[in-house]
Design brief:
Blueprint: H1 6-25, H2 47-79, H3 84-105, H4 110-114, H5 116-135, H6 139-150
Length: 156
């Protein structure tokens, strides 16, 4: 079914990407997306139970972000087991190093607060551009633009 409707699914996803890019830029502001919802717990669990609850919440929040990338990394490991250690090490470093850097230098990175709105606008523009490229199925354009830097590297 995915293969049968692949183009439609790609175009719907690309359209959503453009819409979210417009929201990130501040050009669209649907009221139902501009609300913040928080869960307030009166008696917060502490100790081991509290740690488990926080860990579960973190896992639920990050699974959609890390799942596809980890699955792709594991697929690469499956196709080329002799390079599995390097694939997994690269995945772990790519995932953990940014968090460690933020933890060590969070007080020093005041420019993030200063230029937060500029970075949000740049991110929104990138989302819109990627959505348009994806909608018209021109991701090979990115490969051709990056080919002078990476040569014929295809990821394996």
């Amino acid at each position: 079914m995915v293969f049968q409707y692949g183009n439609l699914i790609r175009q719907i996803g690309a359209t959503l990407m453009v819409i979210f890019g417009l929201i990130t830029l501040g050009l669209l502001q649907p009221k139902f997306l501009m609300k913040e919802h928080k869960l307030h717990i009166q008696n917060k669990p502490t100790g081991y139970i509290g740690s488990v609850v926080v860990g579960l919440a973190f896992a639920v929040g990050w699974t959609p972000c890390t799942g596809p990338i980890l699955a792709t990394t594991l697929a690469l490991v499956g196709t080329n087991p002799s390079q599995g250690l390097w694939y997994m090490a690269t995945y772990i470093l790519g995932f953990s190093v940014p968090f460690l850097l933020m933890a060590f230098f969070t007080t020093k990175l005041t420019f993030l607060k200063k230029y937060n709105s500029v970075m949000m606008k740049i991110g929104g523009i990138i989302m819109i551009i990627m959505g348009i490229i994806l909608f018209f199925d021109k991701l090979t354009l990115i490969n051709s633009l990056l080919q002078p830097f990476f040569g014929e590297f295809q990821g394996s």
